[in-house]
Amino acid sequence: MVGTVGGKDLPLEPSEEEFMALLRNGIILCTALNKIQPGAVPKVVETPSDADLPSDGIAISVYQCFENMKNFLVAAERLGLPTFETSDLEPGGTFSRVVDCILAIKAYSQGNLVGKISLWRYGSGNNSRSSNRVKAPKESLSRAASTGDRNRANGDLGHDHCKSDSMSSLSALVHEFIRDKNQEEIPELIESLLGKVMEEFEQRMLIQQEMNKITQEDKPSSEVRSLVLKPSDDDEEMVDNEELEVKQEENVDKERSRKLLEQLELDQHQNKGDLELDVNDIQELKDMFNQTKTGMEFLQKKHQEEIIHLSKQLLSVASAASGYQRVLEENRKLYNQVQDLKGNIRVYCRVRPCHQKQGSVSNIDEGSISLLVPSKNGKDGKKTFTFNRCFGPNSTQAEVFADTQPLIRSVLDGYNVCIFAYGQTGSGKTHTMSGPNNPDEETVGVNYRALRDLFLISEQRKDTIHYEIKVQMLEIYNETVRDLLSTDGVQRRYPFFSAN
Ligand SMILES: Nc1ncnc2c1ncn2[C@@H]1O[C@H](COP(=O)(O)OP(=O)(O)OP(=O)(O)O)[C@@H](O)[C@H]1O
């Protein structure tokens, strides 16, 4: 490479210091990088002429050397090649990092020749020395481009996948990827993912094979190695160890990939099983829902039929009630007409038991009474009087009230009714209307019986008619009217209302 890009005065077997001194101005490195990637280092400060080139390779200023090295390292990093520090070219620097970088440039160059397969991973096996410098290429790498396409198609999963060195983290990514997905989509996603993983794995294997091939090709005639070092036994052992480490890491990668695939297949199988269970559960729920829905529809239909039936019954009952009210009203009218026909004014006669052995009553019929009157011209006289009904001395309180009772109902139908007793002192008015002192059920008089019926009928009609019942009790004696229910202490005399 040195022969190609410069450094013609370099001995055939240069020492490490001589090689480092040759690279120190950055010209060879920049030129080499531009050879494999034209324009990678846009500006290279060249030496004035080959004749002026000193043995230590520094014919330009320290600043210009530094600028070349800086441009080179920036370009190498942009290409994803392992880089090093400028101080690594100084005595005491880490020369192995410089060697890694040069080997990577060579591998990159050969990768371009064999179909643009990136070989920057050449240095990835030496993570202990340059892992922080090894990054994915940012441009010009066809694999990176194709991976990028897949990444976009795969929701950026592949991007993380490239960045992750750990298969377990990839597995976690897969879990994370499917976690929020719809259960129904998971089998397809897993299948698609497996396909992509297989594709990725195959491509990596291809790349690894290419790398191995190139590395093996490098073994017998590595220009860099012959240029860089006069190989010592220790260095050869170090390179072998590095290759061994690379292979071991490749094996570890393969093992991890295999485990990941197994895990993914297992997860897919498990998800399919879960999905089948879920589908069965959903089907059962659907069946239950349909059954419940059918039952509810049946109940709803039956309920509607019952409501319709009840509505019809209610209508008939309402109609019957309306008819009943009409009949009741008719009955009421007829009833009161009967009362009217019996007479608006009815006069009953009740004969008190007589204390004398022989009274003046000659005969009592249902509607008349005959009285003995003093004889005229030696003949016994007799007078007969007619009433609505006559009650003899043995008549009971109940018999007397029976003829009056229908009038109580007329009162509640809105008719005015007056019942009063008339007769001389001691004829039995109080006995008939109130009964004796401390009356019982049998001897109680017309007033109590009438009031009892009044409250009874009003209670029976309370759902249809609201009655207000008031009572007033007056005494008319010696042409004086008194309020017998007055609570003023002194019975007030008529008129009861105050003057003002
Ligand atoms: N049908 C009857 N059966 C039994 N006893 C009677 C009957 N009618 C009246 N008497 C008795 O006759 C007496 C006088 O009756 P009562 O006091 O009712 O008369 P009165 O018409 O109210 O008198 P007054 O106008 O003076 O108040 C009472 O002792 C009463 O018990």
Short key terms for the protein model shown above:
500 residues, mainly alpha, three-stranded antiparallel sheet, two-stranded parallel sheet, 16 helices, 56% helix, rod-shaped, binds adenosine-5'-triphosphate
| CA-atom Rg in angstroms | 66 Å
Structural class: mainly alpha
- The largest sheet has its strands arranged as 2-3-4
**Secondary-structure element pattern, one letter each:** HHHHHHHHHHHHEEEEEHHHHEE
The number of helical elements comes to 16
Overall mean confidence score, pLDDT: 77
For this entry, what is the oligomeric state of its chains?
single chain
N-end to C-end Cα span: 142 Å
Uncertain runs are 114-166, 220-230
Instruction: Give me the count of strands.
Output: 7
Proportion of strand residues:
5-15%
Largest sheet: 3 strands, antiparallel
Helix content: 55-70%
Write out the distinct hetero groups bound to the structure: adenosine-5'-triphosphate
Q: How would you sum up the global shape?
A: rod-shaped
Summarize the structure in words.
Helix 3 (27-36) packs parallel to helix 5 (95-113). The strands form three sheets. The protein has a three-stranded antiparallel beta sheet with strand order 2-3-4, with no helix packed on it. Strands 1-5 form a two-stranded parallel ribbon. A two-stranded antiparallel ribbon has the order 6-7. It has helices spanning 2-5, 16-23, 27-36, 62-78, 95-113, 127-130, 142-153, 157-163, 167-179, 186-221, 223-228, 233-342, 397-402, 405-412, 429-433, 446-460, and strands at residues 348-350, 361-364, 368-376, 379-386, 389-391, 474-477, 480-483. The protein has 500 residues and is mainly α. The chain is built from 16 helices and seven strands. A hairpin with a 3-residue loop joins strand 2 (361-364) and strand 3 (368-376). The protein binds adenosine-5'-triphosphate. Adenosine-5'-triphosphate binds at residues 352-353, 423, 425-431, 436.
